[in-house]
Amino acid sequence: MNLFLDCEFNGFGGSLISMALVDENQHYFYEVLACESPIPWVETHVMPQLNQPVIEWDQFQWKLRHFLQSYQHVHIIADWPEDLSLFLNALIVHPGNHMAVPALTMALWKPTQNDHFIDAKQPHNALSDAIALQKNYQSMNK
Questions:
Q1: Total structural domains in the chain?
Q2: Contacts of 100 (CB under 8 A, 6+ apart)
């Protein structure tokens, strides 16, 4: 199953704030983590768009594992490398151990400049951005 990934984070290389994964049938995972000291741009553009209460890291990982385990194989598609990095880091339970997930592959995908890109309905919201990525990918890969 293709899962379309988007993350919001606290500036370039910053900590994860929210993550969304949307499958081809519009089933999704979307969770938000605390961001104690957002940089000014994130404070203005990302924080007002989260639209969901904050949860703790262990609950985030439990929900992510539960969502991923509902599939036999997942192919994660993202349009930004940092999203893939944050996703992979979220799989780490503690040093030397990662959560049990189904067979997993990943792709970094971006439409060409000539493609008509469907914008997210709510920019800087990971769920809205992941849905837009899913729609764009499916429309350009028929």
A1: 1
A2: 65, 69
pTM, entire model: 0.94
Tell me the C-alpha distance between 132 and 123, whole Å.
10
Separation between Cα atoms, residue 17 and residue 7, nearest integer Å: 7
Numbers of helices and strands, H then E, in the chain? 4, 7
The tokens of 142 are what?
């028929």
Instruction: Kindly list the distances between the CA atom of residue 114 and the CA atoms of 81, 111, 117, 119, in Å, as whole numbers in the listed order.
Output: 21, 8, 9, 15
Confidence of residue 33 (pLDDT cuts 50, 70, 90): very high
Segments forming the whole domain that contains residue 107? 2-140
CATH number of domain containing 130? 3.30.420.10
Q: What local confidence, expressed as pLDDT, does residue 116 receive?
A: 64
pLDDT 10s digits, 75-94 = 999 999 999 999 999 999 99
